[in-house]
Amino acid sequence: MPEAYEQTLSNQTLHELTASLNRGMFVHVRNALHNMPACDVAFILESSPVKTRFAFWQLIDSEFHGEILEELSEDVRSSIVRQMMPEAVAEATEGMDTDDLAEILRSLPEHLYQEVLSSLDAQDRHRAEAALAYEEYSAGSVMNTDTVTIRPDVTVEVVLRYLRMRTNLPKNTDSLYVVDKDDVLIGDVSLIKLVASQPEVEIGQLMDTDVVAIPATMSESEAAQMFERHNWISAPVVNEQNHLLGRITIDDMVDIIREDAEHSMMSMVGLDDEEDTFAPVVQSTQKRSIWLGVNLITALLAATVSNFFEDVLSQLAVLAILNTIVPSMGGVAGNQTLTLVIRAIALGQVLPSNTRSLLIKELTIGLLNGLIWALLIAGIVGIWKQDLTLAAIIAFAMLMNMVAAGISGVTIPLILKKFNIDPALAGSVILTTVTDIVGIFAFLGSASLFLM
Amino acid sequence: MPEAYEQTLSNQTLHELTASLNRGMFVHVRNALHNMPACDVAFILESSPVKTRFAFWQLIDSEFHGEILEELSEDVRSSIVRQMMPEAVAEATEGMDTDDLAEILRSLPEHLYQEVLSSLDAQDRHRAEAALAYEEYSAGSVMNTDTVTIRPDVTVEVVLRYLRMRTNLPKNTDSLYVVDKDDVLIGDVSLIKLVASQPEVEIGQLMDTDVVAIPATMSESEAAQMFERHNWISAPVVNEQNHLLGRITIDDMVDIIREDAEHSMMSMVGLDDEEDTFAPVVQSTQKRSIWLGVNLITALLAATVSNFFEDVLSQLAVLAILNTIVPSMGGVAGNQTLTLVIRAIALGQVLPSNTRSLLIKELTIGLLNGLIWALLIAGIVGIWKQDLTLAAIIAFAMLMNMVAAGISGVTIPLILKKFNIDPALAGSVILTTVTDIVGIFAFLGSASLFLM
């Protein structure tokens, strides 16, 4: 009988396993882990704090270590691999998919790397070295070399006989690649087409010659975008001479699509590389400190701007009280525009031809927003502080800052991109600096002109 | 010859097409669009401002409208469909995948919805109504009903003969589903296994009975997480009696995986539903206003807190100048924790059993960060303002606020989740309110105690 969903991993399971572990019921935990699919064990490891994670890992029979490592996310995987003996790593990675093997080797510190590499058997070492020859994050580094290739002059029947002899096809094979005698890719035949064809038809007549191949040097993110756009299950990878090198499958691309989408969100608060929710404290503090340091500089910059207006501030405490409102609203409005533009850049939607429309659109929104919130804040301040000049001043500052927010939200990420700086990483902090400074200048500046 | 990547859509193409459109070279644009795959035309429409988008759309022959609509993202698709005549929509959706057809109908305003539904031919209307019977965003609403089912008592040879007769298998078929006479799912056979098996083997012996089926009532996001975790290409959908209803394929899930990952980022700045980069100005302004309104309230709250300390502020302008630093640092540190926790919740990693570890971890980071930045800001203020008491006061406020940021970053999203409020949507604004108020209270409060 097929498994009902209820029998697969639930959060309840994880809760119970952690409780059992804490109560020292190791045999129970070991048995439970052994009866689970590797992907569920991987999920449990990813959802556990570091100590619990290692405790679980040690209860898992080493013969399953390989398949579980394959399922883990990069950060969590390397946190485990770094604790293992080189021989144990070599053993666990035996026969692993080329891309996972290369990724594990890349995550190791230099001395372990060499040791593990030399402990691999000849075939795995050869495969790993081939994958490591491609740059990290390139299509070549995530491809698998286990493709099934056929020649155009054979018939469907011959191919089917050949497949029956092989008995085992690589995971997620949906197409066979047709190559000439020099291994140049000339087309593909989907399994769907193959099984639905008459036995005597020749592959040359059946094959699809429109197949789009991915160059091994393309970035994995670009390749993932192509998978997403074209709804591919797998795609062939070729070198510059169009020689077939391997194939990429959708399951590896799904991880990259998710990581790329998450990347912007994480980068915007400076968590760029912190993929592991339960990373050790010192490691996390270090990673986050850079961002806090940058923010301290911007906060000090804003304080310096306020410092210019010490005179007016010392005479009118009400300005100190209202001084944070305009920068705060500008920051939020600017970050809305910025987030939208960062996402559009990530999707490849922002181009020279439509930048102007985007800028005009966001500028208009900034003006509209500026008018709405200027009127509202003028009303509130007018009633609260019974001062019409003050109300006019804060309204003017709000309008200025909203327009500045709209312009900065579009231009800052575009400028950063031009200089090859990740807009998600640096955009938000630069934008906030701009909206803080413009907001404070507009508010305190006009206050010192009209209220003194 | 297989297409090289250079011949597929590049940003250059989009740039040239927009230029040609602006120069009025309609025939050229029309021909170019006709020679492109539907997914590339969809990309061009998504990357164009509203006016250009409609200009392109009108140049596309109506017989291609259907396949292009299938490739468009939801927001962009509904912006186009709302401009079309009901008959044109009905014509374009003829024979479309059930899930896309249902989604298009759902995006229509009520009066158009009925008109389009009644213009559909009987078969499409029947399929659409079946899909519409499932709740929006449920697995049932995204499934396709075009499954290939076989019985367990036939041989591989019979199945292959049957497939040859059908000649055309549904897109992305990687498995055939094995059902009994009541249509109850009892297993599946992958195409890979089928082509690699001897003709005389019976399906009952070959089939995999461990197949995990998705209940039609499961949410599409949960289903997408299962696809991601299990590396599926397709999965069967069943009702409560385990009757096979249809199947879901990875290409539809990839969109949901991306949308879910982006959702948190967009929500955090209140852009929840704005998927269309080039949405009209008024629509965008409205959507963003809610968020700005909420922020205005928090900014006013913070101003009210400062208002309590009007006395000390009016005597010491330096406090007004430094007043923004501590809230700003607390806001950044808190948002780092918040973003991490929101992502972990989205991935299903946060559970009662590990909440305590997470809280202790973030609290410790808060303390460590607090100490580091308290010392640094004390040094800076001590040197800048030549006032050791002031330096001690700002250091104390910094430490307090960093700890508050760590605690709030973990607890706020968890509490929101308990009350079924999206933590990504409301978390950031509540957290910032907390760090603003704690920061101002700690700084101005201790200043009024020790400096007056």
From TrEMBL, chains A, B:
Gene3D superfamilies: CBS-domain, MgtE N-terminal domain-like, SLC41 divalent cation transporters, integral membrane domain. The chain crosses the membrane at residues 363-384, 390-416, 428-451. Belongs to the SLC41A transporter family. It is a multi-pass membrane protein. It holds the Pfam family MgtE. Homodimer. It comes from the Bacteria. CDD domains: CBS_pair_Mg_transporter. InterPro entries: CBS_dom (IPR000644), CBS_dom_sf (IPR046342), Mg_transptr_MgtE_intracell_dom (IPR006668), MgtE_N_sf (IPR038076), MgtE_transporter (IPR006669), SLC41_membr_dom (IPR006667), SLC41_membr_dom_sf (IPR036739). The keyword Cell membrane applies. Acts as a magnesium transporter. The keyword Transmembrane applies. Keywords: CBS domain, Cell membrane, Magnesium, Membrane, Metal-binding, Transmembrane, Transmembrane helix, Transport. This is Magnesium transporter MgtE. Residues 143-206, 207-265 form the CBS domain. SMART domains: CBS, MgtE_N. It is found in: Cell membrane; Membrane.
